[in-house]
Amino acid sequence: MPSKTNDEKDMRYYLEKLWLGFRLRCPNCGQGKMFSGLFRMEPTCPHCHVRYERSSGESLGGMMIGLIIVELITVGGYLLSDVLFRPPLLFQMVFWVAFNLAFCLAFYRPARGMWVSVTYLTGGVYADEPAETS
Ligand SMILES: [Zn+2]
User: Fold this and answer.
1) How many whole angstroms from 46 Cα to the centroid of ligand 1?
2) Which of 21, 59, 85, 103 is deepest in the core (most CB within 10 A)?
3) What is the pLDDT of residues 84-96, one digit of tens each?
4) Rounded distance, CA 107 to CA 67, Å?
5) What is the CA(30)–ligand 1 centre distance, in A?
């Protein structure tokens, strides 16, 4: 059926755009790098000049992606290690708090990149209008 083929193609397209964001590449052109420093995101793509974020609050979406993933891993990891190894509660607490901090730092850039891809897929990432000169 043609519609199923289109659905598969659309899903592949969405996953490719999310993957570009995860790899910190512009979801529009796939060429420009989103970050110029460890935690410094470029406001626009250096290659195709689309604006990644229209307002500063948009970065919260990326943080939410990171938090959801780290909390799922933490709860699952805590329960699994508790069942398998029965470690002391203090060890569990220290380990999973440290894991949360390390994961949030390590996943900060990919989460923000993926959020830019989500914004791109919903129409929020585009080039600025040229300034009026009249
Ligand atoms: Zn670009």
Assistant:
1) 7
2) 21
3) 999 999 999 999 9
4) 9
5) 6
